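ingest -> validate -> predict -> emit
validate: passed (alphabet ok, no gaps, 219 aa)
predict: started
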Amino acid sequence: MTNYTIDIELSPETIDALAQNGYALYAMKAVSTTASGGAPLIWYSTPNFTSVMQVTWQDQYAAFVSTSQIIANAEINVTTSVDIDLDQTAYVAQSGGMTVGGGGAAGAVSILNQGNQPWTTGLSQSVDGRSSPVCALPLYGQNLDVITPVEQVLLMFAQNYVNTGTVIYRALSQGLLVDLSAQDTCTVQFDINLGWNALAASATQVMPNEDLVPLLIQS
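emit:
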């Protein structure tokens, strides 16, 4: 198991401004898939701030199905979930029950609907010690979705508190898309007036209201 960590350095002035004005830190994680209609979800959030904040995650996965609709600002509530490894397939029964077997796409999680009931499906990944949904995709009857985790995480501080598992199509504020595909730790900085500083990290600035689908649901 690989552990990944992003350290976020904050000044005392920034901590005060964030706390006094109702901000929270949000993280969203990228995936790659050939399925259409996918949406990124709020993966992690916290309204608590320290001088060095950490977002820590592991390469531990779960496949899920849900009856929630994929629409902007809707929360995806998991109906059934099953732990899964890369290269495996999650089989979804007509009832929504899930089992895991081999024979999946290399380096990816495959989810096969064996019934004719459409579902919302997706991938969860462990963050801060618990499994949380990363993305949501439509899964039609007798169809297969293949999802490949991508070690890129979007960080944002924003005032409108949003629950994890919520569909977000556009950036809530200025963000930083951090790429840990070539390393497992990095340090970045955030200032309430100056915004994000990637320091030595491999990262891309994201503008407020920018479309997140091309960044986080990659094809």
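DSSP finds two helices and 18 strands in the chain.
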